[in-house]
Every structure is written in C-alpha cells, then in structure tokens.
Amino acid sequence: MTFPGFPEESVNFIRIPDQFFRDLMLDIDDMDELKVTLYVLWRLERLEGPFRYLRLSDMVKDSQLVRSIGPGSRKARKNLELALQKASERGGILLGEIPIKRGTDTLVFLNSPRGRAALDAIRRGDWRVVEHPGSDLGIAAERPNIFQLYEANIGPLTPLIADALRDAEKTYQASWVEEAFRIAVERNKRNWHYIEAILHRWQEGGRDDRKDRQDRRDPEKASRRYSDWEK
C-alpha cells in the first residue's frame, strides 16, 4: 500500500532531538531497532508528567507495532525485545526491570538526563512502582528527589546540572535539599548555585534553625550572606 501523503492542515508534530539524526540514526543498521527507537520517541513525547516511560507489556499490545516487526505475537515480542536490547546497547534508550504481581516487566526510558535520573532513582528505591487495578503502573516517589525538585522549581535538566545534582544528592541529607529548595523559592533565587550555597553553609557551619527563622524575617540580609558563599 502506498502512503497517501501528509495533509496540509491538522498535522500533529512531535519533537525529536537533533542529535538523533546527527549521531544515532546513521549508525542504526537494523530496521526493527530503527522502528522501535522512533516509536519510543513518539510515544514518550505524547506523555505528560515527571515520569515518562513505556512498558514492554503495553508495547506488545500495540497491534500496528506488532504487525510491523513480526508475523504472530510470539515472534513479534521476540523481535521487539531484541530491537529494544539493540537500542539500549547503542545508547538511545534505557531499560529497567521491575517486579510486578505476575513476575517482571520492562520499563523503557529515553536516554536523557531525566530518563537516567528516573532509572537511577528506581534502582535506589527512591521511587516505587505501584500496580493499579487493570495492570496500569504508576511511579510514586517516597519523597521528592533532587531531580524532581529541580525541574519543579527551576527548570529542565541539562547534563551538567544532572551531574551536579547527583553529587549533591550523595553529599547532603534529603531533608536539607528539600528545605534549601524551599528557601530559594521563597527568596525568588531560583538557581542551583544559590541552593548549593545554602547546603554548603549548612554543611560547613551546621544547621541553625534559629538563624534560619531570622533569615525568614530578613530575607534580603540572608540573600546577601548566601550570595557571599556563591563566590
């Protein structure tokens, strides 16, 4: 069957990273891997929320995808798993095994700072996978992790920021990180250097709740002090 072409109007576009075309696509030599990689990019782009992932069990239920990569559901699943593994080894996507009531399932993430942070958090146990009636999965945070806090209060992650956040997460208590973000937001200092300065002062000089209460009464004075730590 010949594709009839794209219409003039009402076309839904998705974003695909430029790096896919420059650094990834030209190296892919397997048609199933290429299809699956593009499929993951398409599906993840249409999702909302801080946790963007696909389940292998849901991908297998997509009849159009299944028909395109293998005759019969069993052969298609085998081809799909192989294509996902190739895409993971090439670095385009990330795969993570999770326990469910009836065994295990595979989560598929984009290999991005957000995807790496999500997979690391699941492996550490900071996020738990919750199985709802009807076999839908959700991911719930035991408490907001540093990557969620950054994206919710400052903006999108970049590779350099993601590395700095990983280091900070290992260095400072989770409760300190949450409180430092809250203070920065209250003072309209929405940048990582300011938050890091708060954490560094607490680590070097100790956490002083009385002084923090004074800071709330005089935020301008507190902002000057933390700005000195940034230098």
What can you see in these coordinates?
This protein is of the alpha+beta class. 58% of the residues lie in helices and 12% in strands. The chain contains 12 helices and 5 strands. Strands 1-3-2 form a 3-stranded antiparallel β-sheet, with helices on both faces. A two-stranded antiparallel sheet has the order 4-5. The protein is elongated. It starts with 17 loop residues before the first helix and ends with a helix.
Please name the defining characteristics of this protein:
12 helices; 58% helix; Arc Repressor Mutant, subunit A; 231 residues; two-stranded antiparallel ribbon; 2 domains; alpha+beta; 12% strand
**Helix residue percentage:** 55-70%
Question: Please, what is the average pLDDT?
Answer: 81
Tally of distinct domains: 2
Distance between the termini: 64 Å
How would the global form be characterised?
Answer: elongated
Count of beta strands:
5
| Count of helical stretches | 12
- CATH names the topology of the largest domain as Arc Repressor Mutant, subunit A
N-to-C SSE string, H for helix and E for strand: HHEHHHEEHEEHHHHHH
- Provide the CATH top-level class of the largest domain: Mainly Alpha
Report low-confidence residues grouped into runs of 5 or more. Answer: none
Task: Give a topology summary.
Layout: H1 18-24, H2 31-45, E1 54-55, H3 56-60, H4 63-69, H5 73-90, E2 93-100, E3 103-110, H6 113-124, E4 127-131, E5 137-141, H7 146-153, H8 159-171, H9 174-186, H10 192-205, H11 209-217, H12 219-230
Antiparallel strand pairs: 1-3, 2-3, 4-5
Helix pairs in contact: 2-5, 4-5, 7-9, 9-10, 10-12, 11-12
